[in-house]
Amino acid sequence: MKKKPAKHTTSTINRREFIASIALTTGAIALVGCNFNTQKGSEGEPEVRNLIPPRLDTAYLGQRIHCYRPMRRGTPNMSIESKGDQLIVHNYGHGGSGWTLAPGSAKYVVQLAMDSEKGKSIKKDAPVVVIGAGVMGLFTAYELLQRGYSSVTVKAAAFENLTSHNAGGLLAPVSMDNNPELQHLIDRIGIDAYQFYAEVAQGKHKDFPAGAKIMPAYFENRSESGLEPYVGKVMQPAKDVVLDFGNGTQRKMVSYDDGVFMDTAVMMESLKNYLKDKITFEQGKVENYTSVSSSLIFDCSGLGAGALNADKDVVPVQGHLIMLRDQLPANLQSMILVYFSKAKTTSNQEVKRSFYIFPKQLPGSAANDIGVVGGTFIEGATTETPNNEEFEILVGNARKFYGV
Hints:
Layout: E1 37-39, E2 47-50, E3 61-72, E4 80-83, E5 86-90, H1 98-115, H2 117-120, E6 128-131, H3 135-146, E7 152-156, H4 163-166, H5 183-201, E8 212-219, H6 222-225, E9 239-244, E10 250-262, H7 264-275, E11 280-283, E12 296-299, H8 305-308, E13 314-324, E14 335-344, E15 350-358, E16 372-379, H9 389-402
Parallel strand pairs: 2-9, 5-12, 6-7, 6-12, 7-11, 8-14
Antiparallel strand pairs: 1-2, 3-13, 4-5, 8-10, 9-10, 13-16, 14-15, 15-16
């Protein structure tokens, strides 16, 4: 007798609170091999895929990480302004979508600067300063080099163990608060980003041989995926599937087999390696723009942009992640993301809970130390409200999902 898919009983929150859709252009993406076994369902029934759950006992749980995503209420700030003799180009506030949007966002803001009257008067060999060394800052520096700027400095208070290094890696705009009137802009920059990572995943990018992979991305339904605008443009239609974990637990899901995983820590290392002989890295916190001796400044300072610009709309969004260890890499070649209901933390802060798992691996780690589970979205939480109980909650949710 065929097993019935286990019913996932948690109520979901409005997908728009997590994901803003991205519209994409034409150009099909080739699929890479996927490590799962399938059983073709009867006509009209979903395909069954056998997935082996990760090891989630305490011995297999590694580093616990807090992330603080820099979200700007309303929309990310991607704009230009003149302050005296300086042209300030803003590129911050992308929330949990920094990696998803960074390549396209960098292209957009660099073009804004080049098209402005003041930007046109700045020579390509003039000093340019990028504030911030996260994914936004490094991609902006990279884009400046591609446009011919030859004297680029990245200035930041820190260069290692940033939120950009610790981020999960699923390509999807999450933890954003977008003004619907500006959604077309998010869509537009997302096009370039997806195509960039697809080239990396297929080994076709001239500067980055690794850092992204194409693999199945599983969701509970199509509407929550945020990927439907991709379908028929650069992605194949989602498939109805049943994930069978081999322990009596099944989950009815949908699969986008050409989802994109960004190996964020690896990609950060690749970006720095590419840039290190071509630009200047300078450590130091920028308190105000007048302290920067450049007529062209790109503000990619993330949470620091709140103080730098007196921008009260910039808020941290706390996330909890746990690195896995001593896993079988072949069992972690897919991504899963499901949403749960809202709740309150012990700090009385509203938390939007989800469960995700990606095959993230930190540089220098053992081959079997692979995988990350998360995650939470707690707007306004800081290091003073770590909400550490969420680590146990997310592990419990992961175990319940897999039935282990």
